[in-house]
């Protein structure tokens, strides 16, 4: 982008991508431009507050360009490329009307080939005229509650030639021309995120930039939870403080214990944990506080209490007394203790810790997107996590690890594995634990989980399930060219650890609470209500016939 001249040739304006060090300069432009455009309007945020927000949210999550003249920043534009939304475009006073804004707008248009949407204050007549000259048209208004002026602002849309922006803009009503429908939102970018990514060049799932297989080998689950929430791995002092804080909050109230004892004995543990989390929301001392800090404290409390709830519900269903959590235990030790009433050998604990790390987070999967969707409405942490648990229960998502173990038990004998699988092929039946929408060349988490599932087989002294798994995986790859996913080795690993099959997905919840809550906090930090469009296929508008004529 270097050397991009001003549109009208009046300035030798150069455009470049913004960097972390630009926050203060951009905040100064932002303040000065807004004061110039609306001198009677009191800016609600200080320049330092705007700079801090830019450094934490705008710059890392959006595409931002800086316009410079003689090495000095004179304007900037910020684009949310996922939604084609121009978030900011400001030019410093003294440089307005000299082509700088037009150059920035051209850059944003080039980066958003499907079209652009933006909102402009009604009172800012100069901005409305500017966008009108550059091809934007008014398409509606947004509630005044959505901006600091308290006055409805105007939605403006720009579309390139031969493109109907209304097909992709979530801010517009439906058109008369049928849009492209992306069933399952396949291929749709709904938002930006800094939590995790599957790196295509290495086929590796990464958390905050770290490959998950490296984290599994070198870190504890508590370290990874801290990473997902804080953005960086903890040092020794930070980790110790984090462990002490969360371990001290593992107890659940006598009231919740009474409620759990009233659950139907045959209730699925996922239904039990969903209800328990909802009850925790009723009791939470900060239930009505949805500030970032309060939401973060709730996330850590859920991280601490969910294993206790799982253990209490499981043991109540078996007529057993609950086991009190021990704050001296690690996360893995605590899970075994509150469920099984024992702490196993270190090899088992390591295998379990690895599974927790591998299950902790996985971009915009169904349950994570559910949690973000709920959060976008302004709901609190417990509401979002309860919804995430409900989504995770489905057999096409979290319930797959349970289905894998049921499948292995149905096969029963390694000698029957190949014939059993071919029978499934003949009937075109689903084989659980294989395939993944994201990974086409194999789930990057599988080799690590398989390694530790094999270790569990060695500890227990029973290779039946791993041998059946080996045969099924080889046959699926040879006959169908389909690789296993994480649920395939995790199912037998949990079974060999002594967990009953209905507990597999609740254990998944104990892990994924970290990823869900990281996304809840991220969604809340730069929120916009998630409200997609639908294409109506029902009857056209028609009159209501009187009752006698129906």
UniProtKB/TrEMBL annotation:
It catalyses: oxaloacetate + acetyl-CoA + H2O = citrate + CoA + H(+). Keywords: Transferase. It is an enzyme of class 2 (transferase). Transmembrane segments: none annotated. Signal peptide: none annotated. It comes from the Bacteria. Its EC number is 2.3.3.16. SUPFAM superfamilies: Acyl-CoA N-acyltransferases (Nat) (SSF55729), Citrate synthase (SSF48256). InterPro entries: 2-MeCitrate/Citrate_synth_II, Acyl_CoA_acyltransferase, Citrate_synth-like_lrg_a-sub, Citrate_synth-like_sm_a-sub, Citrate_synthase, Citrate_synthase_AS, Citrate_synthase_sf, GNAT_dom. Residues 13-163 form the N-acetyltransferase domain. Pathway: Carbohydrate metabolism; tricarboxylic acid cycle; isocitrate from oxaloacetate: step 1/2. Belongs to the citrate synthase family. This is citrate synthase (unknown stereospecificity). It comes from Paracraurococcus ruber.
């Amino acid at each position: 982008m270097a050397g991009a001249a001003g549109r009208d040739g009046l300035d030798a304006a150069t455009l470049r991508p913004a960097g972390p060090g630009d926050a203060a300069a951009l905040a100064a432009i932002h303040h000065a431009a807004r004061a110039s455009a609306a001198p009677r309007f009191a800016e609600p945020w200080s320049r330092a507050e705007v700079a801090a927000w830019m450094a934490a949210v705008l710059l890392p999550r959006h595409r931002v360009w800086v316009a410079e003249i003689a090495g000095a920043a004179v304007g900037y534009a910020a684009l949310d490329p996922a939604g084609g939304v121009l978030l900011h475009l400001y030019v410093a006073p003294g440089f307005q009307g000299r082509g700088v804004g037009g150059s920035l707008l051209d850059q944003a248009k080039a980066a958003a080939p499907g079209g652009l949407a933006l909102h402009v204050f009604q009172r800012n007549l100069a901005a409305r005229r500017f966008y009108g000259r550059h091809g934007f048209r008014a398409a509606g208004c947004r509630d005044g509650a959505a901006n600091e002026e308290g006055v409805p602002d105007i939605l403006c849309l720009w579309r390139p030639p031969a493109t109907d922006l209304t097909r992709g803009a979530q801010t517009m009503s439906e058109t008369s021309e049928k849009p492209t429908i992306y069933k399952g939102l396949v291929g749709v970018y709904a938002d930006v995120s800094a939590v995790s990514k599957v790196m295509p060049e290495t086929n590796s799932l990464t958390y905050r930039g770290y490959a998950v297989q490296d984290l599994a080998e070198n870190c504890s689950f508590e370290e990874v939870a801290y990473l997902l929430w804080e953005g960086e791995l903890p040092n020794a002092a930070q980790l110790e403080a984090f462990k002490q804080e969360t371990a001290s909050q593992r107890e659940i109230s006598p009231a919740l214990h009474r409620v759990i004892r009233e659950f139907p004995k045959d209730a699925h543990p996922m239904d039990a944990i969903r209800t328990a989390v909802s009850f925790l929301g009723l009791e939470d001392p900060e239930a009505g506080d949805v500030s970032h800090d309060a939401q973060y404290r709730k996330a850590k409390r859920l991280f601490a209490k969910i294993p206790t709830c799982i253990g209490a519900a499981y043991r109540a269903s078996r007529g057993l007394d609950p086991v009190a959590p021990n704050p001296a235990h690690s996360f893995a030790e605590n899970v075994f203790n509150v469920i099984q009433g024992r702490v196993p050998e270190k090899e088992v604990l390591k295998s379990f810790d690895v599974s927790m790390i591998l299950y902790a987070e996985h971009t915009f999967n169904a349950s994570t997107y559910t949690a973000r969707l709920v959060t976008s409405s302004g709901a609190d942490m417990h509401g979002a996590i309860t919804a995430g648990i409900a989504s995770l229960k489905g057999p096409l998502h979290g319930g797959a690890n349970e289905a894998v173990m049921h499948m292995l038990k149905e096969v029963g004998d390694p000698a029957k594995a190949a014939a059993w699988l071919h029978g499934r092929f003949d009937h075109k039946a689903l084989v659980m634990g294989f395939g993944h929408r994201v990974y086409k060349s194999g789930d990057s988490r599988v080799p690590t989980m398989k390694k530790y599932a094999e270790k569990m087989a060695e500890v227990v002294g029973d290779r039946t399930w791993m041998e059946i798994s080996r045969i099924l995986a080889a046959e699926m790859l040879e006959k169908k060219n389909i690789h296993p996913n994480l649920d395939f080795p995790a199912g037998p690993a949990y079974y060999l650890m002594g967990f009953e099959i209905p507990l597999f997905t609740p254990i998944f919840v104990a892990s994924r609470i970290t990823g869900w809550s990281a996304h809840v906090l991220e969604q809340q930090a730069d929120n916009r209500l998630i409200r997609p469009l639908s294409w109506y296929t029902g009857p056209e508008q028609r009159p209501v016939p009187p009752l006698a004529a129906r």
